[in-house]
Amino acid sequence: PIYFTTRQPAGRPLVAVDTVSAGENDTVFYVTSREASLPIDPAFVPVDATIMGVVDEITVNHETTRFH
Fold first, then answer.
1. Which residue range forms the structural domain that includes residue 41?
2. How does pLDDT run across 27-42, given as a tens digit for each residue?
3. Which of 9, 16, 31, 41 could, after both became Cys, cross-link 35 (CB 3.0–4.6 A)?
């Protein structure tokens, strides 16, 4: 995890299953807990975190940051 505003690490590193083929240095969003196993259908897979998507842009207070 990172802090959005500073792009600095936020806490301990996290290992996640990648279901979207994210690339190195991509900004991604992820889910944890039971929901992390849902994209890996049809069987339950014991994972703690799963990457669900790659972030293209974020808009906060009418200011947009693009990542690609």
1. 17-66
2. 999 998 877 877 766 6
3. 31
The token pair at 19 is 């279901």
- How far is the CA of 41 from the CAs of 17, 21, 32, 37, 57, in angstroms? 13, 17, 16, 8, 28
CATH number at residue 28: 2.40.50.220
Tens-digit pLDDT profile for residues 5-32? 787 889 898 889 898 999 988 999 999 8
Against a cut of 0.90, is the pTM above it? Answer: no
Q: What is the amino acid identity at position 44?
A: F
Please say whether the beta carbons of 51 and 19 come within 8 A. Answer: yes
- The domain tally of the chain equals 1
> Residue 23 domain-assigned?
yes
